[in-house]
Structure formats: structure tokens, C-alpha cells
């Protein structure tokens, strides 16, 4: 595997050169039938591309020139006079300029054409050489099949011969450190047979299936973003054949956002699950307005533990090694294994929303489906205690004769990872549903469909981020400048109207209003600092009927939290109506600071 990283501060060891055949060089030898391997299109020189040294930059342009069929030379160099240190250079086509007129009797014919093709490289502050100007067009024909050797190409072969003994004559050597010509052409060479497995790689592709121009579109986009945004991060992963296998990137805003909202994230693999053309994986969090925010994304060439581990590690390194507290995924087993390996200390849960989305697919063909779905919803979202969930689940299975249903069996085995009643002490920042009517949308919903191409996605990616960022700006403005209307005379409502953002306050406000449907709050037991209360509430069930339910609230009188059986505090991050009733019952006039999460506040950056 090769990792190609062009960030100003690379996150992986740059000393690991690209190795093919164990020698850090790519050698094209004639095969037994005397036929040369087909050449691949080399990556284009692009403004913003960086190299560790002048020699690397020269070698890169020389390889590119050899593939296209022209030679190069250093036509200009700039040095700092005191130290005689080169800080700028112009690498030109060997046909650039014109030779001086000779006064010899038989002067050599003019071979130069004044060709404008060139690149200019400059030593930047990071002590790396960066391409700052590019001209790709020639004013003369170039032909990669040309038999003539240019001086720059001869140097390349001689250097390789000195560096290593060869069992067979060297016909062509490309010394490459960070680049392979096949990198951006993921589909080239797909018909090669993998001798180790005895199968054609066409049948088992383990890299990105790129169409013509997709690779260059990705690469050019990354270079352009890196130029305009130095904190933009991207990383490419190549397999042993030089195919582009995985890609990850995150912009500066995503990296900054994660520094504030790193508690809970969702790893969205909807495009993989639904077999979209682009194998997109997205890292999504929630900001102080309760809005979804992008924390990075990538393309996975093959759904294996190795590929998922690579992209998770790339994301973690991008975020400076700061692991989230809670990670939500679907039930993809390979992804689950990768999450366990990369984030061993994080709490990993399955998304209830993902599971409920699969109910029609898995159970839709059963007799009495509507009844089964209703009972399943009630079991999942109405069970306030574990015993209630277990009893309700057992009754559902027996009543509908579902004991042999493999999908329901697997759900039950993993129930501690997704059923709300088992996850009361976990903060999800509103990223899981707490009732059957809640719906969620993926971050790129409306921007990506099943046949969206790589190139098309890059355009929609920018559009999606622009619109999302605009919504954040509008929400910030409204939270700062709009006076929020109070609906009760409760001090709790007045207190948090000055603290929470508008969207979060409106959700908390509903809980304050809900206090008035609660009644008969009473203490039932004391166990040290923990006092248990029962709160009754009239809840609307089917139709207009009202049902009285009992909610148990554990109130710790010392310093930690109110722990509420209905768990709205833990899910949403603000006190639910039952907990507010307990505070009111104890004569508390203002919500203690420990119950106010900074992530929901207008001034979250200062808290």
C-alpha cells in the first residue's frame, strides 16, 4: 500500500518511499513474448504540487516528459547570492528557446522550436519545492513511441543502473517517490491477472472504479483547494499495482468544527449500502443548532476491514488524534470491526434509524406486516425499562410466529447496541430517534443519487457545503439578534432563553410546556445521595385518548446528573419535562450549570 499525502504537515511517515519489486523504483522490462507493457497516462503537473527536494521535482517532470515523448532541461535557476542556495528553477521542454548562431563552417541544424512547455518550481517556507506555474502545450509534435533518447531520459536510466544490478537489461526506469503514472487512472490495467489468487482482478476489484478523467478531476480539485485553503487536508491510498484504492479529505472548517463538537459522530455509509456509483463514506456530527455538520469524507475502493481501517485512521490523524466519545454506524460487520480496532475506547452503537429503515425490506413480505411493524415500534420506542422491552419483544415474536426470522434474531442479539432502553447513559446529541415518527436525512441527501459520478459529486459537494454553511450563518445571526418569545412563566424557560441557541431553545421550550401535563410528583425511595421520584404524565395515544404513564427519575442531590428513565436528557442534551418537575418539586428556581451543556449555547466557543 502507498499513501500519497501533499499536506504541509504530512500525517504519515514520508520516509516510506514507494516500493515496487523491493527497490523503490518502477521498472518496465520486456515480457517473455517481447511485448512491452502498455504505458499509462502520467499525472499532470499541477500548480500547488509539492516535493521534498529539487531532485524529486525534476524526476517527476522527467517521468511525465518520457511518457509523453519529449525531453527536459533546467533552463533557468535562481540562487540566493550569499549562501548559493537554489530557491527557484524553470524546467523546460528540451525544444525551448533557440541555440545561439554558430560561426562554424558546418553548423548543426536548429533542433529547438521555442517551445513554451515548462514548469516553474519554488522553494517555499516548509522547505518543500512547489510548482507555481505550468504550461503544458507544445508548439511541436510529441510522440511517446519515438525511438530517440533525450539526455534527461538517459540520465534516468544510468542512475538506475548505478543504484541496482539488474538480471535483465533495463529498457526503461522511472524513479518515483510519491507518484505512479497509474495513480489517477484507476481502471487502467484492470484486466491483469493476480497470480497469487489465480483470478482476474476484473472479477474482484479492490480499488476505485474511476472513469476517464475522474482521477484527474479529484487530484486537481484537491490541489486547487490546498492552494486556496492551506489547512485543507487530503490523503490518497494506492494498492501495490498503483491503482487508487481509497481517498479521504476534509476542509479547514470541518477540522475546526470537530474541535468543538467531537462528542458524538455518525459514520454514514448509505452510498455503500445502496450500491451507489460513488462509494462515499461521510463523517457527520451535530453543531450548536442541532444541524448536521460534515467532519470529513472519502471514497472506499473495497469494503474490507483493511480499507475501512485506513480511512478511519486517516480521519483520526486529520483530527489530530482526538477520538470521539460516541460513534454511530449501521450494522456493516467489516466497518464494525474497523471501528473496534481504530477507536477501542469509544462507545460504538448502531443507528436505530438505519435499522428502522430496513424494516419494510426485511419484514414487508410477512403476513400481518402492519401489525408487526406497529408492535415493533411500540417495543422499541415505548419501553421505559429493560424488563418492559424484553417482555414486549418476546410477546411480539410469539404472537406473530417470528421465532425463525434471522434478521429479528440478529437484532435481538445486538439489542444492547441499538435499543434506546439500553442506551440511557449515552449522549447522542439528537442523532438517534426517540420516537417512531422522527425522520433523519443524510448530509448529502438531495445532492447524490445512485448514478452520481465522481466528477459530478465534486461540484455538488461544494454546493452542498455552501448551502449548509449559509444555514449555520443564518441560525447564528437569529440566535444572537432575535428575542425569543416565552410561552410560560417558568423561570427555567426565561433562564435558558438567554443561553441556548434558537433551535435548541425551541426544543427545550416544548419540555417546559410539557411540565404542565405532568402531575403527582412524589418521592419513593432514598439510597444515599440518590433520591428516586415517580412522575405521572398524561400522554396522548391512538386517536385522542389519554393514557397516564409513570416515569421514574433518579435525582442525585450531590453533584452529578439527573438520570431519567425516559432518557430525554441523555439523548438530547437538555432536561426533559419529568426532570424539570423534580427540580421544581425540590424548590430549585434556576437550572444548575452542570445541567446546561456548553455545546448547545450561543457562546459555545467561550465555554
UniProtKB/TrEMBL annotation:
Residues 551-587 form the SWIM-type domain. Residues 23-44 are annotated as: Disordered. Its main location: nucleus. It is found in: Nucleus. It comes from the Eukaryota. Residues 30-40 have a biased composition (Polar residues). The keyword Thylakoid does not apply. One of its GO terms (cellular component) is nucleus. Putative transcription activator involved in regulating light control of development. This is Protein FAR1-RELATED SEQUENCE. It comes from Cucurbita maxima. The lineage of its organism: Eukaryota, Viridiplantae, Streptophyta, Embryophyta, Tracheophyta.
Amino acid at each position: 500500500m502507498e499513501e500519497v499525502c501533499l499536506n504541509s504537515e504530512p500525517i504519515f511517515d514520508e520516509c516510506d518511499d514507494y516500493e515496487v519489486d523491493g527497490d523503490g523504483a518502477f521498472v518496465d522490462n520486456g515480457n517473455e513474448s517481447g511485448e512491452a507493457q502498455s504505458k499509462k497516462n502520467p499525472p499532470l503537473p499541477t500548480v500547488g504540487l509539492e516535493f521534498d527536494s529539487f531532485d524529486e521535482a525534476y524526476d517527476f517532470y522527467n517521468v511525465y516528459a518520457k511518457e509523453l515523448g519529449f525531453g527536459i532541461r533546467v533552463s533557468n535557476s535562481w540562487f540566493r547570492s550569499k549562501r548559493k542556495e537554489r530557491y527557484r528553477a524553470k524546467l523546460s521542454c528540451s525544444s525551448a528557446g533557440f541555440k545561439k548562431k554558430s560561426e562554424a563552417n558546418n553548423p548543426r541544424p536548429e533542433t529547438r522550436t521555442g517551445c513554451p512547455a515548462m514548469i516553474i518550481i519554488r522553494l517555499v517556507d516548509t522547505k518543500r519545492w512547489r510548482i507555481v506555474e505550468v504550461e503544458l502545450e507544445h508548439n511541436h509534435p510529441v510522440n511517446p513511441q519515438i525511438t530517440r533518447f533525450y539526455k534527461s531520459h538517459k540520465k534516468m536510466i544510468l542512475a538506475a543502473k548505478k543504484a541496482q544490478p539488474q538480471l535483465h537489461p533495463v529498457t526503461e526506469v522511472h524513479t518515483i517517490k510519491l507518484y505512479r503514472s497509474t495513480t489517477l487512472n484507476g481502471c487502467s490495467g484492470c484486466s491483469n491477472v493476480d497470480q497469487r489468487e489465480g483470478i482476474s482482478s476484473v472479477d474482484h476489484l479492490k480499488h476505485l472504479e474511476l472513469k476517464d478523467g475522474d482521477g484527474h478531476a479529484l487530484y486537481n480539485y484537491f490541489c486547487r483547494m490546498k492552494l486556496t485553503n492551506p489547512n485543507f487536508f487530503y490523503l490518497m491510498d494506492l494498492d501495490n499495482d498503483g491503482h487508487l484504492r481509497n481517498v479521504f479529505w476534509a476542509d479547514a472548517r470541518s477540522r475546526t468544527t470537530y474541535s468543538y463538537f467531537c462528542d458524538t459522530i455518525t459514520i454514514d455509509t448509505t452510498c455503500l449500502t445502496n450500491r451507489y456509483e460513488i462509494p462515499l463514506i461521510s463523517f457527520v456530527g451535530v453543531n450548536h443548532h442541532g444541524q448536521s455538520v460534515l467532519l470529513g469524507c472519502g471514497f472506499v475502493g473495497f469494503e474490507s476491514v483493511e480499507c475501512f481501517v485506513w480511512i478511519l485512521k486517516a480521519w483520526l490523524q486529520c483530527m489530530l488524534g482526538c477520538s470521539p466519545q460516541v460513534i454511530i454506524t449501521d450494522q456493516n460487520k467489516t466497518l464494525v470491526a474497523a471501528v473496534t480496532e481504530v477507536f477501542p475506547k469509544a462507545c460504538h452503537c448502531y443507528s436505530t434509524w438505519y435499522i428502522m429503515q430496513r424494516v419494510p425490506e426485511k419484514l414487508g413480505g410477512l403476513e400481518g406486516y402492519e401489525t408487526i411493524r406497529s408492535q415493533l415500534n411500540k417495543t422499541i420506542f415505548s419501553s421505559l425499562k429493560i424488563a418492559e422491552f424484553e417482555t414486549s419483544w418476546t410477546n411480539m415474536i410469539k404472537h406473530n410466529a417470528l421465532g425463525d426470522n434471522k434478521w429479528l434474531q440478529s437484532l435481538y442479539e445486538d439489542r444492547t447496541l441499538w435499543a434506546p432502553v439500553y442506551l440511557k447513559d449515552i449522549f447522542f446529541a439528537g442523532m438517534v430517534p426517540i420516537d417512531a415518527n422522527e425522520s433523519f436525512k443524510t448530509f448529502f441527501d438531495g445532492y447524490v443519487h445512485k448514478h452520481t459520478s465522481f466528477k459530478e459529486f465534486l461540484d455538488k459537494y461544494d454546493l452542498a457545503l455552501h448551502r449548509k454553511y449559509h444555514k449555520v450563518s443564518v441560525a447564528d445571526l437569529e440566535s444572537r439578534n432575535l428575542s425569543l418569545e416565552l410561552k410560560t412563566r417558568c423561570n427555567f424557560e426565561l433562564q435558558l432563553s438567554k443561553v441556548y441557541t434558537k433551535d435548541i431553545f425551541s426544543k427545550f421550550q416544548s419540555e417546559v410546556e410539557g411540565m404542565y401535563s405532568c402531575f403527582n410528583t412524589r418521592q419513593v425511595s432514598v439510597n444515599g445521595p440518590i433520591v428516586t421520584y415517580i412522575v405521572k404524565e398524561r400522554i396522548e395515544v391512538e386517536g385522542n385518548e389519554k393514557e397516564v404513564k409513570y416515569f421514574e427519575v433518579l435525582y442525585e442531590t450531590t453533584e452529578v446528573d439527573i438520570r431519567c428513565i425516559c432518557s430525554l436528557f441523555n439523548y438530547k442534551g437538555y432536561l426533559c419535562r419529568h426532570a424539570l418537575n423534580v427540580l421544581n418539586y425540590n424548590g430549585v428556581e434556576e437550572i444548575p450549570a452542570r445541567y446546561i451543556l456548553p455545546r448547545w449555547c450561543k457562546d459555545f466557543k467561550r465555554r
